[in-house]
Specification:
15 strands; 25% strand; globular; six-stranded parallel β-sheet; 27% helix; seven-stranded mixed β-sheet; 355 residues; alpha/beta
Length: 355
């Protein structure tokens, strides 16, 4: 999978004053703009964006539903690319032409979370494409420390690593072990990451979603049972599959009030609940079940370097099976069509932009 010398040299010599970037200008409005191309400063690297995945947060921004974003904004934080140029003080391993995965989060190093070495939950985090402009552009400049070198994965799979790693982190938060029963509510890309990671740990996964296509993918990637959230009694079905106990771990990856409370209903006495989605609306609980079941209730945010590395190892293991996770690919030139397409086809799992 290594680049040939001609391709690497072509990247090394690429220099422009401006670049093309896709901006979300307002609700339901995307348009290409010419923006300044930045020379990398101390410790920073200029990366040519080759593949970028669209996330639910990008779609919410497009729909005017993301309160964390000020418009206009260049979206995109699921980035795979190649190094174009390195700034002063960057280690020699970051050579022009090398393939990289971008870790899109920042950490201040000073807040209470950072002091606890939980950099993924930094109080002042600014994720690419959310609190700052992202990677749906020809190139992006980032700190070298936010790059993961990889020459083994197929180029388009580099953009799958970040969203899957969020699901892997949620499984880590849930302390999932071999033999655990795990309900995953929502089989989008983050839910799929949780399913894949939980199955890899030897758990029995019960996957819940409205979409037949997503349920089929969950089964393909190891879910023992799939449940149609639209037509089945989810709590009743979970109780049937767990001899009336409920699951050891209930994972919420949708972000709706109903699924937040449903996770409490699905967890067994002495169980664990992990919230990786977040609800935009208030959630009302019958809180006695927190106490009666003595639940461990945990939030899960972003992912760590170790989670990224675990996903890379898994993708290297499964090879082209990962292609099933990609629903549709748009060329960079047609990127203006991608978010409107997703808005009309909500069953898609992952849309990639390819350049």
């Amino acid at each position: 999978m290594r680049d040939n010398p001609a391709e690497a040299n072509a990247f090394a010599n690429t220099e422009k004053d401006t670049m093309k970037a896709l901006m979300i200008e307002g609700e339901n409005v995307t348009r290409f703009h010419e923006v300044a191309s930045t020379t990398p400063g101390e410790g920073r690297v200029r990366v040519g964006v080759r593949h970028i995945g669209l996330c639910g947060s990008d779609l919410n921004t497009f729909k005017g539903l993301n309160p964390l974003v000020n418009l206009p904004r260049i979206p995109g934080h699921e980035i795979g690319g190649q190094i174009l140029e390195v700034g002063p003080g960057v280690d020699a391993q970051y050579r022009p032409g090398a393939r990289v995965i971008v870790m899109p989060y920042t950490s201040c190093g000073k807040c209470s979370s950072c002091r606890k070495a939980k950099l993924n939950a930094c109080r002042y985090n600014k994720t690419l494409g959310v609190q700052q402009d992202g990677g749906l552009a020809e190139e992006i400049v980032v700190p070298a420390e936010k790059l993961i070198l990889n020459e083994t994965l197929a180029p388009r799979y580099l953009a799958l690593v970040e969203p899957l790693s969020v699901g892997f982190h949620a499984v880590e938060r849930g302390r999932i072990e071999k033999g655990d029963s795990v309900a995953v509510i929502g089989c989008g890309m983050i839910g799929m990451g949780a399913i894949i990671a939980a199955v890899a740990r030897g758990a029995k996964v019960l996957a819940i979603d409205l979409s037949a296509e997503k349920r089929a993918l969950a089964a393909q990637f190891g879910a023992a049972h799939v449940i149609d959230a639209g037509t089945e009694d989810v709590v009743g079905r979970i109780n049937e599959l767990t001899d009336g106990d409920g699951v050891d771990v209930a994972m919420e990856a949708v972000g709706l009030p109903a699924t937040f409370t449903q996770a409490i209903d699905l967890a067994c006495f002495g169980g664990r609940v992990v919230y990786v989605g977040y609800s935009k609306a208030p959630v009302t609980y019958q809180t006695q079940f927190f106490n009666l079941k003595e639940l461990d209730i945990m939030g899960s945010r972003n992912a760590t370097l170790a989670n990224f590395q675990a996903v890379i190892t898994h993708l290297e293991k499964i090879g082209d099976q990962a292609e099933a996770l990609i629903s549709k690919v748009f060329s960079f030139e047609r990127a203006e069509e991608a978010l409107p397409y997703w808005d009309c086809h909500r069953n898609v799992l992952k849309i990639l932009i390819e350049r």
